[in-house]
Amino acid sequence: MAMLSNLDLIRRVPLFSMLTADQAQSIADSVVKRRFKRGELVVEQGTKSNSLYILLNGRARVLTADSRGREVILAVLQPGDYVGEMSLIDNEAHSATVRAEVQTDILVLGRSEFSRCLPDASSLAYGILRGLVARLRNADRQIESLALLDVYGRVARTLLDMSEEEKGVKIIRGKVSRQDMAKVVGASREMVSRVMKDLEDRGVIETLENGSVVIKDRLQHD
Q1: Which intervals hold domain HTH crp-type (predicted)?
Q2: Of 26, 123, 131, 182, whose CB count within 10 A is highest?
Q3: Cα separation, 8 vs 112, whole angstroms
Q4: How far is CA 4 from CA 8, 32, 50, 102, 192, in A?
Q5: What is the pLDDT of residues 26-71, one digit of tens each?
Q6: pLDDT surpassing 90 at residue 101
Q7: Are 151 and 122 within 8 A, CB to CB?
């Protein structure tokens, strides 16, 4: 790898295959090469790194974990794959951790250089990109819930996701459909109804006469 220029490396990455010669050279002048040892974190869930990471060789796992350390593998990255683009587009923290599975060489492109490759922030294309990133984050969160949380946890997380804060109180406007909730959390309608009733009996949630649901603070810690 030491014999190859950054431009040679860029040309080998499918992500950059549509760049013009000038664009490719600009990227090549901006990237730096980093080597990650086996087990080393490329990015960490919940943090920001402000870079795009493109695998040149090796292999890395995209994973998420719960508070007890249980992990779910969301994807396995191979040479040519990249990570970090979601955070660069929406400026949010990484939704998952990426760990080198073996010694892995990576090209690192900074935020400002990456931003020059994006459409204008006021354009429709950029709006669509942000929308796609939001969907991907939701998908990662759903996979994590299905794999790591029991039905109680999945119902609680879904209720929180559906709620909006009003004068310091979390509330879901409109009736919460048990059938729709069951489809979201991957459980039967009957099971969701039992969980909702138990949460009400315990004072964790309160259903108002108009069908709206008020969420107590304790739901976030159960």
Answers
A1: 149-219
A2: 182
A3: 22
A4: 6, 13, 26, 21, 57
A5: 888 889 999 999 999 999 998 988 899 999 999 999 988 777 777 8
A6: yes
A7: no
The tokens for 22 are: 């000038």
Burial environment of residue 221 by CB neighbours within 10 A (0 to 12, 13 to 18, 19 or more): exposed
Q: How confident is the model at residue 127 (pLDDT cuts 50, 70, 90)?
A: confident
Give the strands of the sheet with 104-110, arranged side by side: 32-36, 104-110, 51-55, 82-83
Highest mean pLDDT among 40-54, 141-155, 170-184: 40-54
For residue 148, the model assigns a pLDDT of 61
CB atoms within 10 A of CB 152: 17
Distances (CA, A) of 183 to 45, 46, 84, 142, 167: 27, 27, 30, 12, 30
Pairing of strands 205-207, 169-172: unpaired
Q: Which amino acid is at 191?
A: M
Cα–Cα nearest to 109, from 88, 91, 95, 128: 88
**What distance in Å separates the CA atoms of residue 137 and residue 143, rounded to the nearest whole number?**
10
